[in-house]
């Protein structure tokens, strides 16, 4: 398929489904669906992701998109995000990486060697992200076989954070609401201090949200926010101004609520 200037491919990978879209920076429409495929997810994330590879082979015919740029957004359930305190006396990057590996193993009880990790945020408040190496291998294999230029692979929360953190107001926390899971970016003194994923009960109103934010603030030892700036379709009750709290929604693509989880992943964070 011939590629126009500014066009690219975006792949959303959720647990059990993948969605392929064509993005266009300069021409309408900005997003065009190209197809979806289902696969049997690896529950433990320790397998070879062969079923995902077969779904990708189905979505991306050989020679159809040769030379196209491909970017990939992963569901947060396929990744690990965690914070690392700066080790006392640390003078080298290797010191932080060693501390990150120990923290990862203590949190998840998994061998760090099966995961590819990288630092994602300010070194003064270091956060790390890890993705299964087998998952990356399948994505790299398909991209190489189709002669695609792999631009980035990132979890959805990191994608949204990178897109919106510059627009956060002083003292605000960042939130992402997807599939009845609220992922909070807890901020204090201008830095991201924690990432917390909370299941949202059906029918949860503003009282539940305020209690959840207050509980997380206590756990992290920081003040509760007066403002939550959120990506996702929030319940209407969350948006009603309270005496000392307000929830603000970042702009989202039209019709996003009708899309599958994998399609919403693909469109996370805009075209860029």
Q: How does this structure look, described?
A:
By secondary structure, the protein is an alpha/beta fold. 27% of the residues lie in helices and 31% in strands. It has 7 helices and 13 strands. A 5-stranded mixed β-sheet has the order 3-2-1-4-8. Strands 11-10-9-12-13 form a 5-stranded mixed β-sheet, sandwiched between helices. Strands 5-7-6 form a 3-stranded antiparallel β-sheet. The longest helix is centred in the middle third of the chain and has 16 residues, at 93-108. It is globular and about 55 Å long. The mean pLDDT is 87.
Rg of Cα set: 19 Å
How many strands, what sense, and barrel or not for the largest sheet? 5 strands, mixed
Structural class: alpha/beta
Tell me, briefly, the overall form: globular
Give a short overview.
The chain is 27% helix and 31% strand. It is α/β, with parallel strands linked by helices and 272 residues long.
Key phrases:
five-stranded mixed beta sheet; 13 strands; 27% helix
What is the fold's blueprint, element by element?
Elements: E1 7-14, E2 17-24, E3 31-38, H1 50-59, E4 69-74, E5 80-83, H2 93-108, E6 115-119, E7 127-132, H3 133-145, E8 149-155, H4 156-164, E9 173-178, E10 181-188, E11 191-199, H5 206-220, E12 227-231, H6 236-239, E13 246-249, H7 261-266
Parallel strand pairs: 1-4, 4-8, 9-12, 12-13
Antiparallel strand pairs: 1-2, 2-3, 5-7, 6-7, 9-10, 10-11
Helix pairs in contact: 1-3
